[in-house]
TrEMBL record:
Residues 1-19 form the signal peptide. This is histidine kinase. It comes from the Bacteria. Its EC number is 2.7.13.3. The chain crosses the membrane at residues 35-56, 98-118, 138-156. Residues 191-256 form the Signal transduction histidine kinase subgroup 3 dimerisation and phosphoacceptor domain. GO terms for molecular function: ATP binding; phosphorelay sensor kinase activity; protein dimerization activity.
């Protein structure tokens, strides 16, 4: 629509010069006999064709710019088309191309104004209703041309800046959407990893007991030892509880909670510091002696993440003892309070016996991840005197930031 209005406007602005070239060249004005010359008609036709390039100025701004340059260099035409091409270069190209086009258009405009005032083309006729001295004419033409040129450049820069601002806003919206999608994917991935850890930590302990007692049943089945009944009960109870946990975990995987913080409520039952005694009881039933000292102050005020971490670390540590040092004695020291944080030490005598249940190799890694998320520290390994020790220190304040 703008081009449809701009094209006739350009023709009307240059119409006086077109008429002068067409009708009065080469016959002097004083002869009073208008003549239609072939060169004049060619100039008018060239002007019509050059002005038509405004329709392609957006895709091909250099074409419009070049057509305007041809008009002012070869004829006695106004540099308006050249300025339109310069405006298009600034808006649709920018950068070095816009700079080169702007500088060149300014130089051409100044040169043409001076040329037309001092030494106009010999085959053109100027329609100048007001006769002015050469100096005043040059000053007036330079002022008017410079004003139009500056306004053209400023409008081009303003439009270019608006386009860049809109493009930047669009990129920001796309980047925000991408970041939101990535955040959701990371949250879902973290949730799946958490569920995998829960599966490992929950089932590994009880299934280790199942494996241990199954081996014992194989030996006891050949005798009438009264402990056979007790061992069978342990196997049955452990298997039953494992199935219940498995159902809960599968339910959580099939119907996950909405995306959000990793430690959000789910169908997985929360096991915390207060439930450590359940792990100790199952370990005792597996034939491992546990000397435990537990002193907790307000464990219900701890965050879910801290409660779960302490429970899982105790469970994983005792599971490792059942797997790799069955029949040994374990020392467990658990202390926790809002002011002092949580201190957990688990020691067991290293032996060369094993329950035969292979380990996944991720137990200690998962424990370190839990401790790291809470800002604590953990040391695990042989002590040098025949013992294996797990030493965990967790800050209560860091856990409180997670929120319940």
């Amino acid at each position: 629509m703008v081009s449809l209005l701009l094209y006739p406007a350009l023709l009307l602005i240059n119409l006086p010069n077109h008429a002068a070239v067409s009708w009065y060249w080469p016959t002097p004005l004083g002869a009073g006999q208008p003549v239609v010359s072939s060169l004049g008609l060619f100039a008018v036709l060239l002007a019509f064709i050059c002005n038509a390039t405004v329709f392609v100025r957006r895709r091909h701004p250099w074409v419009t710019w070049g057509a305007g340059a041809v008009m002012v260099l070869l004829g006695q035409f106004d540099p308006l088309l050249l300025f339109v091409g310069t405006h298009a270069l600034i808006v649709h190209r920018g950068g070095r191309q816009a700079t080169i086009g702007t500088i060149a258009a300014g130089v051409i405009g100044v040169w043409v104004v001076i040329r037309n005032a001092i030494a106009p083309l010999h085959w053109t006729v100027m329609l100048d209703p007001v006769s002015l001295p050469t100096g005043q004419r040059v000053l007036l033409d330079l002022t008017m041309t410079g004003l139009v040129f500056v306004v053209t450049v400023m409008l081009g820069r303003m439009r270019r800046n608006r386009q860049q601002a809109r493009a930047a806003d669009a990129r920001a919206v796309r980047a925000e959407g991408t970041a939101r999608d990535l955040s959701e994917q990371l949250t879902q991935r973290a949730e799946r990893e958490r569920l995998a850890r829960e599966i490992h930590d929950t089932l590994a302990h009880r299934l280790s007991l199942v494996s241990l007692h199954s081996g014992a049943l194989e030996e006891l089945a050949q005798s009438s030892d009264p402990t056979l009944v007790q061992a069978a009960q342990v196997v049955r109870n452990s298997a039953h509880r494992s199935l219940e946990d498995l159902r809960n975990l599968i339910g959580a995987l099939r119907d996950p909670a909405p995306a959000g913080p990793v430690e959000q409520p789910s169908r997985i039952p929360l096991r915390g510091m207060a439930d450590v005694t359940d792990v100790i009881d199952s370990t005792l039933a597996a034939g491992v002696k546990v000397n435990a000292f537990i002193m907790l102050s307000s464990p219900e005020e701890a965050s879910d993440m801290l409660n779960r971490a302490v429970f899982r670390i105790v469970q994983e540590s005792l599971t490792n003892v059942v797997k790799h040092a069955p029949g040994t004695t374990v020392g467990l020291d658990l202390r926790g309070s809002p002011g002092a944080g949580v201190s957990l030490k688990i020691r067991n005598m290293m032996t060369h016996h094993s329950s035969g249940t292979p380990g996944s190799g991720t137990g200690l890694v998962g424990m370190r991840e839990r401790v790291g998320l809470l800002g604590g520290r953990m040391n695990a390994g042989p002590t040098g005197d025949g013992w294996f020790e797990v030493d965990v220190q967790l800050p209560w304040a860091a856990a409180a930031k997670q929120g319940r």
